[in-house]
Amino acid sequence: MISTSEFEFDADSILCCRLPNCKQWIAEISREVESAKVDFQYSHQIGDRWENAYLPVESVPSVKMPMRLARDLVLKKWKIKTAILFTPLASLSLSHPPFWFNIAEVGEKTGVHDHAKLASFSGVVYLKSEPLAGDLFFRKEGIADLCINPKVGKMVLFPSYLKHGVHLNKSRQKRVSLAFNLFPFPFPSVEW
Q1: In whole angstroms, how large is the CA radius of gyration of the chain?
Q2: What pLDDT sits at residue 192?
Q3: What is the pTM of this model?
Q4: Can you tell me whether residue 69 is helix, strand or coil?
């Protein structure tokens, strides 16, 4: 059984857990990312930093484990069925896989955003982090930010509409995370 902790943020809940066998899994995905990093595709640049780095699931099959665990935890905690996608889905206007890597060098941060367009829940898993690497924070107007410290092997799950960002990386090394979206199941009919 996986031990979870929960944070209440206004009327919303944010769930954290430590991935089982995280050392083994992180070593495996780190090897996969390292061998495939020449194939990174990027969605957008903010300042001098590429915000999201994408790889096909065939290059990083280890991403399936935390995403499946996230789907199961969302069902258990929120009683909501979600779908996992490992490849882009044209009918949902996805040009990249719905999982990506964020690589923040020292002195970099991630601005406030949400994933509300089509996703129902989002998650992040920390692959590389040390103290002062930059907290994940959630923001709502009129409420103090909720900050969650990144730790290797930690997974954070939250409703996709929540605004969030990452504070400045003040550590001595880059921070690396896997982020992903889970989608409503069954898929709603989408008209474009």
Answers
A1: 16
A2: 39
A3: 0.93
A4: helix
